[in-house]
Amino acid sequence: MIQKKQRYEPTDREQAFLDTVVDTKYQREIINGLTPFFDEKAPDDMMTFYSNDEVVSLKVLKGTDRDVESRMPVKITRHYYELARNSEAISRIVKASPDETGDLQGSEDPGHQMDYAPVEGLLHKYEMGLMYVISTCSAHCRFCYREELIARKEIERKDGTVAKKGLAQIPEIIAYIKEHNAAVEANGGFHPESGREKLREILLSGGDPMVLANSKIAAWFSALAEAGVESIRLGTKEMAFYPQRFDQSFLDMLDRFHETYPQVGLHFMLHFEHPDEILAKDENGNYIQDDKGFKQWIPATGEAMRGLVSRGWLTVENQAPIIKGINDDPDALRILQREFKRAGGENHYFFCGRDIVAYRAFNIPIEQAWNILNTSQKGLSGIENHARLSITHYKGKTEVAAVTNEPIPGLKGSENGVVIFKILRNAGSAPDRGKVCIVGRNPDALWFDDYEDRVLFDEAGLFDYSRVDKPGMAPSSLISGGLGTGCGG
Ligand code: SF4
Fold first, then answer.
1. How many Å apart are CA 145 and CA 206, to the nearest integer?
2. With bands split at pLDDT 50, 70 and 90, how would you rate the model's confidence at 1?
């Protein structure tokens, strides 16, 4: 890992761009933690977010192993609170419950991600790198896959040291990218030690990068562009938590960035779980429609979405986990996919929950998640139904491609139907893309382990944990493929 302190000097072109950026002060009216509810210090109209009984049951856990806030800090914006008080689903996204610490099984660092951090704050597994640029969001989802980062927990590294996950810093990250890409170029397209290709795409993640000031986001964008990164993604749930953040000063920064670096792709990976996060409701809880039957977006959210999609040179995609009691509902997912596409976005992935600490409180069985998404897509057109169900195997990003109800004739173990997994991406140049794994059904399965005794066919190697993809590369079993229930890609 590169540890030495580095300096970073912007180029003249970069500095000229940065000089145009304006920062705005935002009033998110955030409530941090449960203490304002315990001590009746939250604004009067927000105090009812937790009932007296709920306050008592959460207070009693304070300081114990089951303290919900030490697992995942509580945080909510005024905008999201207004949505939550009219929506059970939205409320469950951000409202702490004693149930979440009833069973603390799970991993602090699913996929041992820290093993793949060549520089603090950067995960480099594919041709794409992921950076932690901030350790908080405007509000916090209870099911977040990044709870260890947001709660600032100490994680054990490969070398046995224990430390909090650090955040990416421009000088060190840019030095690493330049060094890696120079070595790749000098070696005919592959890194001489890791076998990886050019690091050409970077995902800004966290936490939520949209919590940063425009000038900080701009500094990342231009430094990455100057380092030769071809495509930048930004993973964010800010359009749900505080859509006013996508204001003119932010859009102006995007425009100046595009004018300065027109060759660099920019992709917003939004995170909406439920249509209640985007659609306006009447006092009876029904979505407001106009006289032609068009559902109306929440004004600020619609404006934020228009601000992005009207810039044809960037893309706007949605991805979200399917979580128990929140969006495990085909009708809700159908509306969400239809409306997001109508507004000009693309439906990218839905995720099965990962094996985070306390995952049993949030995850639904894999086969149920597939059925919910599949049912939701029955009412969608071909351009609306692009989203796939992804599950993040340690080997790489994997699609839950099909679940059958009928046995496969002659195939022992398929009597109750099968589940077909397909590898979408794995380490290096995705050598196993398209390979499948077929297992006998287990309707209760929450994770791959629950299929271990019923593997029927496994050319994908999902149940063969000792393979090595290429000389010099880590065993594929240890390489985590994506972000699961956090934000990002
Ligand atoms: S899921 Fe995304 S928005 Fe929610 S707390 Fe985690 S990183 Fe933040």
1. 11
2. low
**pTM (2 d.p.):** 0.92
pLDDT digits (tens, 9 = 90+) for 315-341: 999 999 999 999 999 999 999 999 999
Mean pLDDT throughout 399-408?
Answer: 96
The residues lining ligand 1, judged by C-beta closer than 6 Å to any ligand atom, are: 137, 140-141, 144, 146, 150, 207-208, 237, 271, 486-487
Between 483 and 97, whose confidence is greater? Answer: 97
Could you tell me the two tokens for 361?
A: 């409180």
Domains present along the chain, CATH in parentheses: 12-25+105-478 (3.20.20.70)
Hunting for tokens 């209640």 — which residue is that?
276
Task: Please tell me the residue having the least CA distance from ligand 1 atom 2.
Answer: 487
Q: CA 308 to CA 267: how far, in whole Å?
A: 10
* Cβ atoms 298, 306 nearer than 8 A: no
Residue-wise pLDDT tens digits, 216-248? 999 999 999 999 999 999 999 999 999 999 999
* Alpha-carbon gap, residue 203 to 231, rounded angstroms: 9
- Residue indicated by tokens 């995960």: 123
Dist. CA 43–CA 191, nearest whole Å: 55
Q: Mean pLDDT throughout 294-319?
A: 98
Given a contact cutoff of 8 angstroms between Cβ atoms, the answer to whether 241 and 154 are in contact is no
Distance CA 412, CA 414 (A): 6
Residue nearest to atom 5 of ligand 1 (CA): 140
Q: How far apart are CA 82 and CA 90, in angstroms?
A: 10
Neighbours of 172 (CB within 10 A): 22
Token pair of 99, please? Answer: 């149930």
Close Cβ partners of 361 (under 8 Å, ≥ 6 residues apart): 97, 99, 100, 101, 102, 103, 143, 324
Atom of ligand 1 nearest to the CA of 206: 7
Element (H, E) at 184: helix 170-186
Question: Quick one: pLDDT at residue 478?
Answer: 34
The answer to whether the Cα torsion of 363, 369, 372, 376 is positive or negative is positive
Instruction: Report which residue type is found at 209.
Output: P
Identify the CA nearest to 234 among candidates 140, 344, 138, 315. 315
> What's residue 474's pLDDT?
37
The DSSP result for 246-274, as a single string, is S-HHHHHHHHHHHHH-TTSEEEEEE---S
pLDDT category at 4 given cuts 50, 70, 90 is low
Distance 189 CA to ligand 1 centre (A): 35
Q: Taking residues 353-368, what's their average pLDDT? A: 90
Please give the distance, rounded to the nearest whole angstrom, from the Cα atom of residue 140 to the centre of ligand 1. 6
Q: What is the DSSP letter of 158?
A: T
- Nearest ligand 1 atom to alpha carbon 321: 1
Secondary structure (3-state) at 277: helix
Per DSSP, helices labelled H in 4-74 are 12-18, 35-38, 52-59, 68-71
Determine the distance separating the centroid of ligand 1 and the alpha carbon of 486, expressed in angstroms. Answer: 5
